[in-house]
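[Primary structure, fold]
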Amino acid sequence: MSDTQSQEPIEELSIRDSKLTLLGTAHVSKTSADMVEKLIESNEYDAIAVELCPSRYNAILSSDSLAKMNLMDVIRSGKASMVIANLAMGAYQQRLAEQFGIEPGAEQRKAIELAQKHHLPVLLIDREIGTTLKRTASNLSWWKRWTLFTGLLLSLISREEVEEEEIEKLKEGDMLETTFAEFAHDREDLFVPLIDERDAYMAARLTQEVEEKGHEDILAVVGAGHLKGISRKLEEGINEPARLISELNALPEPSRWPKIIPWFIVALVFIGFGIGFYRSPELGWQLVWSWVLINGTLSAAGAALAGAHPLTVITAFVAAPITSLNPTIGAGMVTAAAELWLRKPTVKDFEQLRHDTTHWTGWWKNRVSRTLLVFLFSTLGSAAGTYIAGFQIAGKLAGS
């Protein structure tokens, strides 16, 4: 696929008494990277702003950042799903690179490289990707959130080629938005946190940099899909950039229901056991064994599907019926710990993680990603077992 030959969109604005040049780029276009080089080599700018947050900037500079990850800490802190989602997005973007011979984000890398060459400050103006993902999730219903996440997971085993239409959208828009658009059915739910809020955030960051650092001539390299939004926000004026940045960085208040529901289910299960034993010890033990067999079997099946060690599969069977009665400890946490103990990842596993996860088979080959899958699949199996066993217990009580 050939790059578009049209001139990359450029807008020149003023922030206070400083000049700002906004270069709208295509994240998958060599033409954009060439334009970045041409502008920076003109030596007209005293600072280069890029559409990156600190974590993505560090990932570009430190290719071994994943090698420094403490996997058990990630799982204990509840960030395993976020890591899986990030790896899945990376796999999707790598599919683009392999299919079309392109390098997503090449223009941002070029901007950083040339800024360092000319000893110019690099301004990171985008919001942290973790904050954006959390605010995006809070903007979706629980069903669309589940559809989004499962879509990302299904993409791991997808061998379908990315359609040309998706590439054209990337040339017009934003990498994050387009990545999610492949899996989400309603883009309206995604527009505010993925595009509009980030337009405002980047406009505020540019204003803040001018006010605090006094840059006189800034080149900002941003996706073409953000160009009009950032321009509009700046033309409207941002009087208190720090306050706006703080508001856009605020994480949504977590709902109480996800914390209450598991305890409510546990209470119902114990009530069901109590009623069963009250009616007859035989019925009570039938209910207990139904709980153990269904919950344990489904969690063990999830661990086996992830390619877990046989002892980890047995651990899942034993742990799931117990952890399901204690919402503070998930089955996945126990199975992941067992898998880490039985098959400790090597330094090479961490170093190869980003490369291995670009193909679905690599998720099962690499010990780091496989442990994440063990955590995820055994958790899902236990969750399914909890509801199925709960309904079966209720059915037996109703029929006795």
Observations:
- Residues 1-6 have pLDDT under 50 and may be disordered.
- DSSP finds 19 helices and five strands in the chain.
